[in-house]
Design brief:
Largest sheet: none
Oligomer: single chain
Distance between the termini: 9 Å
Radius of gyration: 14 Å
């Protein structure tokens, strides 16, 4: 698995809580390699998807409450409930507009902590891919 493929996998796995399907993974890799998309636009696509919205229980169409978003991402990315300090730090970043939920998702899925947590799922995916 290339570094680019591992990054893609982590966004997929963190956003949707599952390994990518082969067709979807291949499409996103081709789009990124062609320069039509990057991790941020891919994450934006996931956040707006019906699958993601169903997971976060969005009550407002495409609008996702920052606290609901952070709780969901903490659970899918880190496999745990958020710690108070970390949650408040990310919440402030979202509320201030310093970063969007797309940027927060990408940052969290590309963190060292998540890279370590996904070593086994990425290896498993690579053997089946």
């Amino acid at each position: 698995v290339t570094a680019e493929q591992a990054q893609l996998f982590r966004v997929y796995y963190g956003a949707l809580g599952r390994a990518p399907d082969t067709d979807g993974f291949d499409w996103w890799i081709a789009e990124i390699e062609a320069g039509r998309h990057d991790l941020n636009s891919m994450a934006a696509g996931f956040i707006c998807s019906d699958e993601f919205l169903a997971h976060v229980n969005s009550e407002d169409g495409n609008s996702i409450d920052n606290e609901v978003f952070l709780n969901y991402v903490y659970r899918t990315v880190f496999g745990r409930e958020p710690d108070v300090a970390g949650f408040n730090w990310w919440l402030q970043i979202l509320v201030s507009g310093e970063k969007s939920n797309v940027q927060v998702l990408v940052d969290m899925t590309q963190s060292n902590e998540y890279a370590e947590l996904t070593l086994n799922p990425i290896s498993q995916f690579a053997t089946e891919y």
